[in-house]
Every structure is written in structure tokens, then in C-alpha cells.
Amino acid sequence: ARFKVCRSSSKHIAVRFCSEKNMWWQFGAALAAALTAYGYRTLSHAGMFRKVVVEKRSFEASRLVYKKYVGKYSDCGVKFQEVVNLTNEVFKDKENAIYRSVGVWIDDPMKIPASKTRYAVGIFLPEGEVGKAVEKKLRENGYECQDLPKATCVTTTFPFNGLLSIMIGVSKVYPAMKKAALEARVENPGPFMELHFVDPMGSACGDGLVYHYGLLDNQKPYLLGLPESSEYLKEIRQADDRKKQ
Fold first, then answer.
1. What gap in Å lies between CA 124 and CA 7, rounded to an integer?
2. Does the predicted TM-score (pTM) go above 0.90?
3. Among candidates 172, 164, 163, which has minimal Cα distance to 212?
4. What tens digit of pLDDT does each residue of 164-197 get?
């Protein structure tokens, strides 16, 4: 009888162990499924599964107010914030006022050391009196101004909703745009531009998209008075050689 009791008790413990094991397995499976779904939604929101469709079209003539910088493109965030804050001071009393901020990337970081790449950050001036007020405000804070001609570009859009979308965008957009440029028989497209529609009363990227452009012609004015990258690279190498002497 004692043997039967022990045997019955052991069986109960084994059943309980299997039940608890099965419960933890189910919990783990549910957690894995939830994390997978969350990861998929996060990546999808950041543009991982978005197809990059590149078109060839004209970029209309515009008046640009900008500052030029040298350094890593990844450091441009504070520069964008500066020009947006200054511009918003002019737009603060205007309703339904949307304007365009822009980054102009002069050099290919695959060819020019990242710490020495050149770029500009600014805005395309709106028309009318508000545009004149914005230009005056920015000039007072060290910005330059230049009229840019109409140009042919390769262009596409990509989500802009955080660091992950920026990283994914860089890895997907620029190879696609360079490929499209080669198909248009332009071996050295650029400069490249990233344009954002800014809502002064809301998001610094009003529609959640970045508009990418790569110049195919009329490139020189978009260099903003700077030498071409090939000449700039020679200057960098000559400076390095002088340091070694």
C-alpha cells in the first residue's frame, strides 16, 4: 500500500512538472510571437520593407538660405534644429505656414573622409514678404543666400521617424539613386539633397517623409561656391603630405 501511495505521488509530481513546463513553453512562445510582431512593426514603420522607387524629374529654381559646414553628416541634427528654430520665430504667428528645410550633401563619404565631408543646411525661401523676413532673420545669424537654377534630378521619398529610419534610408536610398543616375548616363550625380516639409506649429518633418534629390545637371551652382569633390580630395591629400614633411 505504501508503494502504491509513493507511486501515485510520483505520478502526480511528474504530471505537475509537465504541466508547469508546458505553461512556460506556451508563455515563451507567446512572448517570442509578440516580440516578432513588435519588431516587424518597428522595422516596417522605419521603412525596412519599403520599396525605393526612384524617378527622374525637374527640381524647380529656388532661393536658398544656408550655412556651410565641414564634418560628419551624422552631426547635422543640431544644424537643422538651429535653422528651424530661427525660421519658426518668423512663422510663429502664421497659420498653415509650411516651409522646406534642406540638407545639401556635397561629398560622397565613401570617397572623402567622413570628418572632412562638406555640407550645407538651410531652407528654401517662401515667396512674398514672409520670405524676405526669413532671409533677413537668417542673414543676421550668419547665413548666406543663393539663387539656384532649375535642374534635372533623380528623386525619391523615404520615411523619417527616428534614428532607425535614417540608418535604413541611407542604406537603401543612395544606392538606388546612384543606380538610377547611371541608367541616365550620369556617372557622378550630386550634390544630393534631403528636403523636409516643416510645420512651425507641429513636427519638424510635417508629413513624416524625407524627399531625396540627386543632381544630374546644373550641378555647379548647387556646390554653393565650393570646389568639386575631386579637387577637394586633392587639397586634402596635399595638406596631409605637408603634415608628414
1. 84
2. no
3. 172
4. 766 776 778 889 999 999 998 888 898 999 999 9
